[in-house]
Amino acid sequence: MMGVTHATSGAALWIATTGVLPYLDTGIHPLPASAVLAGSIITAGAALLPDLDHHSATIAHSVPLVGRTIAAIANNVGGGHRQGFHAPLMLVGVWFLASWMSRWQWDIGEFTVAAGAGLTALALCSFGVKARRYVSSWAKAWAVGLAYAALVLAMSPQGPSWLPLAVTMGYAVHLVGDILTTGGLPVLWPITIRPPRWVRRTPVLSAVWRPGGHVAVPLLGDAGSRREKVLGVLMSTYVSFGVVAETCRMFGL
User: Fold this and answer.
1) CB under 8 Å, gap of 24 or more: what pairs does 135-143 form?
2) What DSSP line would sit under 204-239, residue for residue?
3) Residue 134 CB: number of other CB atoms within 10 A?
4) Nearest to 169 by CA among 46, 58, 52, 84
5) CB pairs under 8 A, 24+ apart, for 138-144?
6) 9 and 208 Cβ atoms separated by less than 8 Å
7) What is the pLDDT of residues 187-209, one digit of tens each?
8) What are the start-end ranges of the H helices in the chain?
């Protein structure tokens, strides 16, 4: 799945979960509209994180030289693209890392700054707006990210409590998106179980259990397919509607 679709799916999932579910008799306490809007940007950016292991991914171009270096390290550590960083097991690490970042604070004189939450918001907002092509350059993306991080910290000086959830949901929806393409995911990583010969010779089964051991439910076909683009348009429309609705709610309309 392409980066723009991943980012859109992250925002759509957050809006659907926090902006809609609380009103469907689920018993979930609704977040303020400002948190729904802010979280959608965090989740959109987090939905790009698994592709950190690819040299041409959006994040790899975020900072000259540094981005590609980090991508190369991630590729080696994870064992290649769509390996360790695309494993469901990684969600546990993402949750704990995001939880730690949300609690990391700096004491500056009499003030305490939620540094971890601010840096997370800065990075993920920059990734999200660039992937969604809201800005034309990375310089503008980081400028928007900096303003967004300041706004998030102004609304939640101790850091938003929903940050770990937003980051983990964004990461998870990326994995769901990729398993819907022909490439699939290493669902049992670090264990690799390759299909036997008779599976590789069976048309439907070979598409689900890939020769390299990945598992796929290729409803969207190849990454960047027409089906993916249609899904992206539908999700983008939903996100636009959700943003307008939550903005109206924030102003009491």
Assistant:
1) 138/61, 138/62, 138/63, 141/62
2) HHHHHB-TTS-B---TTBSTT-HHHHHHHHHHHHHH
3) 12
4) 46
5) 138/61, 138/62, 138/63, 141/62
6) no
7) 999 899 999 999 989 988 999 99
8) 3-14, 33-46, 66-78, 90-103, 115-131, 138-155, 163-179, 197-200, 203-208, 226-250
Contact between residue 186 and residue 149 where contact means Cβ atoms under 8 Å apart: no
Token pair 């020769």 in the structure block, residue = 211
Residue 253's pLDDT band (cuts 50, 70, 90): confident
Q: Is the dihedral of CA 24, 27, 33, 39 positive or negative?
A: negative
Q: Please tell me whether residue 82 adopts helix, strand or coil conformation.
A: coil
Contact by Cβ (8 Å): 47, 135: no
Cα gap 130→139, rounded to integer Å = 10
CB neighbours of 137 closer than 8 A, spacing ≥ 6?
none
Its sign, for the CA torsion 98, 100, 106, 107, is positive
